[in-house]
Every structure is written in C-alpha cells, then in structure tokens.
Design brief:
This protein is mainly β. The chain has one domain: Jelly Rolls (Sandwich), CATH 2.60.120.10. It is built from one helix and ten strands, in the order βαβββββββββ. A hairpin with a 5-residue loop joins strand 5 and strand 6. The termini are far apart.
C-alpha cells in the first residue's frame, strides 16, 4: 500500500534559474514519478536567468507579489501577474520572471510534469 509523504524544506536549493527554491515534491524528496512542486522566491528587484523547460509544462500560482514575465523568442513578449494569478508556460517556451517590487519578495508555487525538477531546465540566450 502506498503512503502519503510530507516534505518540509527548511533551506533553499540553488537552481539553474538562480532564484531561491524550496524543493517540495520531487523524485528525490518524495519518490514522485511524473510531477514536481516547489516554492520559488524572487527577491526584491531580482529576476531569474532566462530559461526554458525542455519537454515539460509549467504551472505557477503566484502567492505574493507582482511579477513581470518576459517570454517567447528573444523574450520579446511580457505579461504582468499579481498574487492570486495562475500562470501556464508551455514546454519549451523561453521565459524570465522579474519581481517588480524593490521592497518585497515575490513567492510562487511552481509545478512541472517532471519529477526531476531541475533536469529539464536549460538556460536560454536571447539574441
């Protein structure tokens, strides 16, 4: 019989995106086979490295803050999201979130259909 697993991350993990990340559910922490779920903190005024997820979709729920996400070819498009927004990023779409506040961190729950949550992350270099 399967068991329920609780994960309580206490420290952040370094990521390719260069944002503090609390790894919640993953293959390593919970034995997940096809999903990961983490909490990402974007410090005041900070932004992620431009990146994409090769072969995997991303779903985000913005818990706190206002974030502008640049996306698409050469990161030429952008959208501004606020706390309470759900955000979907299709697989392979380059993106770069940026916290619009200079005073408060933005916090988001991020889930991907990838149990090895950093394996599919690839740095994107716009032209």
């Amino acid at each position: 019989m399967a068991i329920a697993i609780t994960v309580r991350p206490e420290i952040t993990t370094a990521t390719i995106q260069k944002l503090p990340n609390y790894v919640g559910i993953s293959e390593l922490t919970a034995g997940a086979k096809g999903i990961s779920m983490n909490m990402v903190v974007i410090p005041p005024g900070a932004k992620a490295e431009p990146h994409f997820h090769n072969g995997f979709e991303t779903a985000i729920y913005l818990l706190k803050g206002t974030v502008e996400t640049f996306y698409g070819e050469n990161l030429s498009k952008s959208v501004v999201n606020h706390a309470g927004d759900f955000i979907f990023i299709p697989e392979g779409v380059p993106h770069q979130p940026r916290n619009l506040s200079e005073d408060e961190a933005a916090i988001a729950l991020v889930s991907r259909n990838d149990a090895n949550e950093q394996e599919s992350v690839q740095v994107y270099c716009p032209e």
